[in-house]
Amino acid sequence: MLGGELGSKSPVHPNDHVNMGQSSNDTFPTAMNISAALEINHRLLPALKQFHDSLEKKSEEFKDIIKIGRTHTQDAVPLTLGQEFSGYVQQIANGIERIRSTLSRLYQIVLGGTAIGTGLNSRKGFSEKVAKKISELTGLPFSTVPNKFEATANHDVFVEVHGALNTVATSLMKISNDIRFLGSGPR
Q1: In this structure, what CATH number is given to the domain that contains residue 66?
Q2: Which of 51, 76, 92, 175 has most Cβ atoms within 10 angstroms of its Cβ?
Q3: Ranges 42-46, 66-70, 96-100, 139-143: which has the least confidence
Q4: Cβ within 8 Å of residue 132, ≥6 positions away
């Protein structure tokens, strides 16, 4: 390669010149953090906020419409349609807060930890510099994780974010089913 002997590390060293001291153990999770944070901030949260605001308007619009409440798909006691929609408003507000509460940990990136968190073959200060540059490029407050050993050994932040997203998805399904039932009669 480039005039060197096959298998030699000259003139191109696989770690120093090609890999540049990085590892899939730090680059892949960092890419996942960045992409998830961007999508959550630029698409999901604005969409949920818009949905929240629409439900809030409907809650006010429907404040004087009395209907029969339902529990376990059976008739229950009266309430206003506005009250019912206020519950949906709160569900979405809770979901937004759940997602936002995960972001501080999602913004912590492991880049520079290399293979197992030691930072071997990574220049001193690289992690901090790259986190700062990623923050500048994305407009989001990325920082380096406080413990790279922990961050390369597990992906708890993704489990946490998934839990929040799963809860929001469940709330959206519940709201959708309720509205479907509302439209199914009787009239």
Answers
A1: 1.20.200.10
A2: 92
A3: 66-70
A4: none
Tokens of 7: 């298998």
At 78 the three-state DSSP class reads: strand
Residue 150 lies in a domain: yes
pLDDT in tens, 76-133: 999 999 999 999 999 999 999 999 999 999 999 998 877 777 777 778 898 899 999 9
Burial of 178 (0-12, 13-18, 19+ CB in 10 A): middle
In terms of pTM, does the model score above 0.70? yes
Considering the domain boundaries, does residue 181 fall inside one?
no
What is the domain range of residue 128? 16-173
Q: What is the token pair recorded at 178?
A: 């309720």
Q: Is residue 132 included in any domain, yes or no? A: yes
**Domain count along the chain:** 1
Rg (CA), the chain: 25
Residue 157 within any structural domain of the chain: yes
